[in-house]
Every structure is written in structure tokens, then in C-alpha cells.
Amino acid sequence: MSVIQETEEAPATAGTTRARVEELAALRAAVVAGPGEKATLAQRAKGKLTVRERLDILFDEGSFVEIEGLRRHRATGFGLEDRRPHTDGVVTGWGTVDGRPVFAYAHDFRIFGGALGEAHAQKIHKLMDLAESAGAPVVGLCDGAGARIQEGVTALAGYGGIFRRNVRNSGVIPQISVIMGPCAGGAAYSPALTDFVFMVRGTSQMFITGPDVVQAVTGEQITHDELGGADVHAERSGVAGFVYDNEECCLKDVRHLLSFLPSNNREMPPGAPTCDPSDRRVEALVDLVPADPNQAYDMAKVIEEIADHGEVFEVHERWAPNVICALIRMGGEVVGVVANQPQRMAGVLDIEASEKAARFVQMCDAFNIPLVTLVDVPGFLPGVDQEHGGVIRHGAKLLYAYCNATVPRVQLILRKAYGGAYIVMDSRSIGTDVSLAWPINEIAVMGAEGAAGVVFRKRIAQADDPEAMRARLVKEYKEELMHPYYAAERGLVDDVIDPADTRSVLIRTLAVLRSKHAALPSRKHGNQPQ
């Protein structure tokens, strides 16, 4: 071909390319717009945002990059061959949150009700594999009606691939599930395998079998919200760690949570500059915690006092409230806090509190977040229901989590620490790096009243004045075995500190432990209590 011919034909080729580019732009616009105004209005009528609006809130402005937006299913039968919308009901891609890379998949309820089919599942599989390779968190925005019935077993196999990746990435990259609509049947297992679950009140539900099935099998009549709504999972089942009144607040707190987490298990949590002095004395603590071990107070206020600027991000706030699990910053560094809450059930440990704290300790250990344990515990909750419900194995979960943790660990005994609960709350004997106590601490097998009743039962019964004898022996027991320096004298507490110095001592202690390296025995994995 001559140079003249080449030049003359070039405009025609360029024109074709421009037309193709315009065609692509129109196609992308149609994909972003979604299935139509009617479906969008139906979504809004339920009080829900569209999938693109959700992603806009989650990610930094203009940072989201979609992959497989033009994907369509290949299934046939039941009219599926005539309905092949782009995206196949799930939007996948990555973007940044506060400048850090994050991967996300988001169901589009307007397409097939967000139901999962083969192509839909493969998009999520690819997204999760990319996140694993890149070492970045995965956020799933769940709003789907479960498996796509028309595709049969291939849809179920798609869920299996998601579950397998959830487990493979567990403790490797942060995984967050945000329930923004229905999440039923097999779909509910994936959020249960992730690190954190967010729900929106009034619009999100999770259950394995819906109300119709429950009624058919058991005869019970129950609504979707009563069976698996946000409040149910926040207060009773413990499935949801966070609940919100609207999607905007929910997604903003997902961003906030990500600011505490490293991108993967090979990195440290991101630090943040702070103008809150590390050596700030906290005089309020002296009066905040009463010396009387039977008087209640709010442990949440103690945590606020020691945290940078009083900012506390609590996990599972409404489930098992007798123990607090929270992420805070101290001296700009992320810290996980586990604390008994004397304001609820006197701060005892029970089945749910043990499970809640164990899960939190494991998460912190997986993602290199140091642990501070604030102890004010009268023991484990006694009772037939607790024993028959398996308090032994559930308490053992917390014990296992602490013993297995290799991150820096600091225990602080504020007031009482009795019996097996003292041991379980990261005591020196199970491996905490540093144990501290306030001068009002009482560490013992049990409270003085109960101990005196057991040890001196005969002397009290034989005394002329049993009550006077009991009071004298209780006093003797306290002076002998429960004075605040008893454990320190035996090396089970490293130091007794002024409560006002709590923040500065903890920050200095965690700073020196930051380079801690703990070697574990070679093993495939442990067999933790179930």
C-alpha cells in the first residue's frame, strides 16, 4: 500500500474508532444507570440507596474502579436467556478509603433481586482473589435474595467458592459485611465468616430460613424483622456488631472502622497524629471508680478518659454488654480494649461475654492490634442455665484466645479480680506481658465474705456472737490475702500505679512492647474450644 493510500484511508479508520468509543461510552452509561427508573424508584421506596450511591459514600470521591461491569450470565431456561442484564446483579471493583486501597462487591437488588448466579458468583470470586493478592480489605455490600433458583446447583456452588475464600482470607485481610437488604439462606453464612457485620435498622434482615418456612415447619408466626432484623442480631444473636438508622451513617462508620485496621496481617495498624498529650494525667479516674467493690460505675467512661480525645469505637455494644470490646487510639496508635462493665450484671463473665471477648481478642491478634485488658470482675455467672449452656467451653474460648495471642498485651486491674475470671482476663499466669493494678485492687479466689464463710465456717458457727466473729474474720482475711500489694509482692502484678497516671503508663508500656516478637510452636493450627 502506498503512502497516499494509507493517508487517505486513515480518516475512515479513525472515524470507526471514534464511533466505537462513543458506543462504549453509551454502554457504560447504561450500565451505571442500571435497569431502569421503575426499579430505582422501587428501591428508594424501601428506604434504600442504589448500589452506585452506596459505593460513592464508601469510597473516596472518584476513586472507584469497576471490573467486569459488562459481564452477563450464560444461563438458559425459565426465560433467563431473554434477561441478560450487564453486571448480572453485582458491582465489583476497588477504590480508596482515606487514600488506602479497598476492594468491594455490592449486590444490585434491582437486577434479579440481587440473587446470586454463576456469573455473579464468579465476579465475587475474582474480586476476593484480587484483594488477597493485593493484600487489601474486602467490603461486601449485601442486598440479595439468596441463590438464583433458576440456575440450580451452579448457584449453590458459587456460594461455596465465596465461603472458601472467606475462610482462606480470615486473619489475612480484613473482611467486612454490610447488610443493606435481605441476606437469606446460604448467603447469610458469608457475613458470619467475616470479621465485622454492619446492619441497617428497618431494611436489612438475615436468616437461614424465612418467616414462611418457619411458620410451615413450626407453626410460629413471625415477621422478617422479628426473625432476623438488625436489632435482633445486635442484641440477641450477636451476629451484628454495628446497627444504624440509615445507610449513610452505616457506610461512614465502615470507613471509620477501616481507619483502625491494617490493610493485611503483614502490616501494622495505621497511626494517626494526635494533639492529646501522651503524658496527660487523668485525675478524673481517681473519683470515677469507687473503692467499694460492690458499687457500680460506667467502665465506658474510664475508657473514654484514657483514649485520645475520648474517642471510642465500640464493637457489639448492645450484645453481652457486661463486657466492653472497643478500638481506641492512645498516643496516636491503635489499641484494642477488653473491659468488664460493672454497670451491667456487675461485670461478670458469662457465655455471651466470653464469646464476644474471645472473638475480639482473636481479631486484634490477627491484625497486629495491641491489647489492653481492664479488669473489674467478680467471677463467672453462676447458674444452671450457664452450666448447661456450656459456660465451661465458652469461657475456655476466651482463655484460648488470650493464650494464643502474640500481640503486646497489658492487663490493668482496677478493682476486684476474683477466681477463674481473674485468670481468664489476661492474667500474668496466662501470658500477659505486663500486669498493672490500681491501689484499690483486690485479687483473690473469691470475695472476702464468701471466703470467710468457707474457710472459717466452723469457728463462726461455734462463736457466741456469730456475726461479730464473721466480721472480724472477714477483716483478717482481707488484711492477710486481699490487700492491694499482695499480688505485687509475689510478682503477679508488675506495678501498682496511681489511677491518674493510667494513660501515660499504658502508652509508655505499649511503646516498649511494639517490637515484641513471639515464636509459636510449629503446627497446622490449634483445636480451639467450640
Automatic annotation (TrEMBL):
Organism: Streptomyces heilongjiangensis
Lineage top rank: taxon: Bacteria
Domain CoA carboxyltransferase N-terminal: 17-273
PANTHER family: PROPIONYL-COA CARBOXYLASE BETA CHAIN, PROPIONYL-COA CARBOXYLASE BETA CHAIN, MITOCHONDRIAL
All residue ranges annotated as the CoA carboxyltransferase C-terminal domain in the record: 277-524
Catalytic class of the enzyme: ligase
EC numbers for this chain: 6.-.-.-
Pfam families for this protein: Carboxyl_trans (PF01039)
Name the UniProt record assigns to this protein: Acyl-CoA carboxylase subunit beta
Keyword hit for Magnesium: no
Keywords: Ligase
GO molecular function: ligase activity
